[in-house]
Amino acid sequence: MELFIYIFAALFSVINPIGTVPIFVGLTQDDDKKERSRISLWTAIDVFLILIISFFIGQYVLDFFGISIDALRIGGGLIIVSSGFSLLSGKFSKKRGINKKVESEVQKRNDIALTPLAIPMLAGPGSISLLIAFYQDHQETHEIIIASFAILTVAITIFLILKSAHYLAKILGASGIVAISRIVGFIVIAIGIQYIVSAILSIIQTNFIE
């Protein structure tokens, strides 16, 4: 249970689906309730597929390009820390790969579930690198099962949040969403720093302490 809570909390904090609520509301403001539910469902499915594929084959991609797990932790940690600072400063939407021009274009398309919602707004480099690093350290069968279930739970949570996005936007308001995002931002920064510290300690132990 502790492992499940850890991976779920880490993924949820980095992905921050609540921070996506205002963007989702803006992109689906002209859609009816049924269409919003469909987009929410397919966004969650796309996020799940992206994360689960990254979780299982990410290490092989690293091996192919000759990237060490410590380099991934440092790079991913920097991305996560950057995302955390963006949340604290209220500029997270600008870091999620969507701007006014992109927003205008996607509103003209029928399906926005895969892009920009699933990629890059939700399943971004931070969550992907987090999962790859996690898989490297937890390869027992029961750990893999727990992590897969945590990824599925995160996807279900994303679906529920996006499905209720218009309602949440009315209840929480802009200030409420900003407050939650900034609290989550602090947690995200801590996660990113922990990844960087772990990588540096691992490098020191491997190269200088034998």
Task: Report on the architecture of this protein.
It is a single chain. The protein is an all-alpha fold and 210 residues long. The chain has one domain (2-208). It has ten helices and no strands. It has helices spanning 2-15, 17-27, 33-65, 69-89, 92-95, 100-106, 113-122, 125-137, 141-163, 165-208. Helix 3 (33-65) packs across helix 8.
Overall number of structural domains: 1
Q: Radius of gyration, Cα only, in angstroms?
A: 17 Å
Shape: globular
Number of strands: 0
What's the total helix number? 10
β-strand amount: under 5%
Low-pLDDT segments, ≥5 res? 106-110
Mean pLDDT: 84
Helices and strands, in order, run as: HHHHHHHHHH
Largest sheet: none
**N-to-C span:** 35 Å
Q: What percentage of residues falls in helices of 4 or more residues?
A: over 70%
Structural class: mainly alpha
Quick rundown:
This protein is an all-alpha fold. It has ten helices and no strands.
Write the layout of secondary structure elements.
Layout: H1 2-15, H2 17-27, H3 33-65, H4 69-89, H5 92-95, H6 100-106, H7 113-122, H8 125-137, H9 141-163, H10 165-208
Helix pairs in contact: 1-8, 1-9, 2-9, 2-10, 3-7, 3-8, 3-9, 4-8, 4-10
Keywords:
mainly alpha, about 210 residues, 10 helices, globular
